[in-house]
Design brief:
The protein has about 230 residues and is α/β, with parallel strands linked by helices. It contains 9 helices and 8 strands. It has one domain: P-loop containing nucleotide triphosphate hydrolases (Rossmann fold), CATH 3.40.50.300. It is globular. Bound molecules: 2'-deoxycytidine-5'-monophosphate.
């Protein structure tokens, strides 16, 4: 069973994807964390972020594993656990730049298919339902207004001890939205057959419940051999 969850930054899709994966006992593949890990490594090794070929070569050297550890879904990159170091604003900016390179996307899409192929998985990202798994069993597009998303992101960053101004976070989100939706390769876009959920006035549990219903229906359908 492959559950594809796409949507913009701060839409709540990560929390929802995690809730659904836990309820179902599925693996949770956070593809944004993979782009962040590549960006983080590029910054660390002083690889030019604008040099698509160099960043793709770096991405090819990285392997990924996802595991639940208590409250967290943890990503291991070449065996090294990555936590809040890939959530910093500097890495968010760098991830947005590296993810615009077609060569980098090509490498990571292959890696994502490999990670998702062997187990029932929830994959969350921007292009899961359109590019990575166009035949996913369930496709959901989760979104919220930019202001609501900025409020959530600012709260999250403050919780992690980062000092941020709301206007700055909002403007970052709007810029990233533009880059993510306007780029030529795999722009952020709802798949035609994805179910769209706007989460501004919904609780996280409501959204998880809604997605879980869709998964349940799909499981029943495949059990009955349809
Ligand atoms: O979801 P996130 O904020 O952790 O994603 C980090 C960056 O990676 C963001 O700029 C969008 C990009 N990304 C992408 O292009 N494709 C994906 N499947 C996941 C993330």
């Amino acid at each position: 069973m492959i559950v594809a969850i796409d949507g913009p930054a701060g839409s709540g899709k990560s929390t929802v994807a995690e809730g659904v994966a836990r309820r179902r006992g599925y693996q949770l593949v956070d593809t944004g964390a993979m782009y962040r890990a590549v960006a983080f490594e590029a910054l660390r090794r002083d690889v030019d972020l604008e040099d698509g070929a160099a960043v793709a070569e770096l991405a090819r050297q990285l392997d990924f594993e996802f595991r639940f550890d208590g409250d967290d879904n943890v990503v291991f990159c070449n065996g090294v656990r990555l936590d809040e170091q890939i959530r910093r604003n500097e890495v968010s900016r760098a991830a947005s730049i590296v993810s615009a390179h077609p060569s980098v996307r090509k490498v990571l899409v292959q890696t994502q298919r490999g990670v998702g192929e062997n187990r029932s998985s929830v994959l969350e990202g921007r292009d899961i339902g359109t590019v990575v798994f166009p035949d996913a069993d369930v496709k959901v597009f989760i979104t919220a207004t930019p202001e609501e998303r900025a409020r959530r992101r600012a709260a999250q960053l403050r919780e992690q001890g980062e000092e941020v101004r709301f206007e700055e976070v909002l403007s970052e989100i709007e810029q990233r939205d533009r880059r993510d939706t306007e780029r030529e390769t795999a722009p952020l876009k709802k798949a035609d057959d994805a179910v769209e959920i706007v989460t501004d006035d919904m609780t996280v549990q409501e959204v998880i419940g809604r997605v879980d219903e869709l998964v349940e229906k799909s499981v029943e359908k495949s059990d009955s051999g349809e």
